[in-house]
Design brief:
The protein is 43% helix and 5% strand. The chain is mainly alpha-helical. Helix 4 runs parallel beside helix 8 and helix 8 packs across helix 9. The radius of gyration is 21 Å and the shape is globular.
Amino acid sequence: MPFVFALIAAPNAAADVWGYVDEQGRPHVATEKLDDRYQLFFRGRSSADLPVAPAPSDTDESFKQTAIYQRIVNHPNAKRFEPMIVRYAKQESVDVALVKAVVAVESAFEPEVVSPKGAIGLMQVIPETAQRYGVNDDQRRSVAQKLLDPAINLRIGTHHLAALLALFANDVPLALAAYNAGEAIVVRYDNQIPPYPETQEYVKLVQQFYAMFRPPPVPASTKPARITIAPKPRVAP
């Protein structure tokens, strides 16, 4: 199961972060205390539901200091798979930061994660989705085994994400909801995020990481513009 956040419609709504790191070193996060293992890491306003990266805030910086966030973004696999993520994101014309956010939430950069529902690898791709995009069993490996290959997993997962963005007119929250619950479910709910707690929290958390992975906006230059004065035309004697 991916690490999930609650989707809150109001842009200034409060969002608490509870989490813990299990025996295998994998982080788990939620917006409420699901059991005694969860500890409160962050309380306050979250701008994660905004479609673009917001200006840094005290609460965003606080979340960046939590053990959960640090565990995910400082995982050695985050740098290890960075070039591959960039490659496939650019190949599919998808924002690199969005792909990284999906990987962070789906697997915390662990390439061998397999969910109870059969989702596999870095982007938690199910074999049926991989087959849709041409990945099939062969004499050497099954589809499931192929999806444990980070390159195949990232290629298919990013291609699927790009297809969902195209289907939902580049609406990032809807594409993420479809990535989690399936595009047919999103369409069934009139192109709205389905009322499933897991999907709602998933969309929220991916957007939280997406906002933080995106580079800050380039500040406007404070250097005064240079004024060029054209030379006076010479007058013939």
